[in-house]
């Protein structure tokens, strides 16, 4: 039990701002999708005149893509991002400042504070919600939406362990995304889906993951779920790890040339 208490203290103290997951090195692993989202984003940024990253977190992935585009001498002339959580917005402003980025602090489900047809590239990695109508509005005709979304049933085994069996809805399904894109006047150019292995090697990593990825167990706190975390600790001690799966899908859409602003 002393070991459990030490791990829970560690899990409570770890920072959870931004989307840097380096704290988990050696403590948890998540398989990466085969399509290489960051590499694709960097490629698209080399041909974009104006780029917007929606729900950018701490700006880590967007910064990586912009740096690669700048190294190739092809960075966008205008760069902007949105983020809803103030600590992440502050991180994003610092991370993206070298590229002259405007970072707008707006709700994930709110309107985008940019003019119609302002960007020829809109990107997002793991948005909590997708405002298709607003994405379609701010995209210029001929522009592209490139994103990696979290799919249906992500970490369901972990959710069920902590909360008991939970229904799995289709709100994050590929079908819903394709329908949403079409309703916004976008043409889907590419969709790819993958199921990936997620594995935890100590209960501190579980606690930090649930503090950071807040939709896996809504309302999670270490105190509220201490009994389940203790059970998880015993399971990991007995079996060496706790494994779940995540789903991810890549979606790329284009706004037709000549399309009216929405």
Output the keywords.
262 residues, alpha/beta, Rossmann fold, eight-stranded mixed β-sheet, 9 helices, 35% helix, globular
Explained architecture:
The chain is of the alpha/beta class. The protein has a single domain, classed as Vaccinia Virus protein VP39 (Rossmann fold), CATH 3.40.50.150. The chain contains nine helices and eight strands. The protein has helices at 2-13, 37-45, 60-71, 86-96, 132-138, 156-163, 174-183, 203-212, 226-239; strands at 28-30, 50-53, 78-83, 102-105, 119-125, 139-150, 187-200, 242-254. It has an eight-stranded mixed beta sheet with strand order 1-7-8-6-5-2-3-4, with helices on both faces. Helix 1 runs parallel beside helix 8 and helix 2 crosses helix 3. The longest helix is centred in the C-terminal third of the chain and has 14 residues, at 226-239. The protein starts with a helix and ends in an 8-residue tail after the last strand.
Concise overview:
With 262 residues, the protein is α/β, with parallel strands linked by helices. It has nine helices and eight strands. The protein is globular and about 65 Å long.
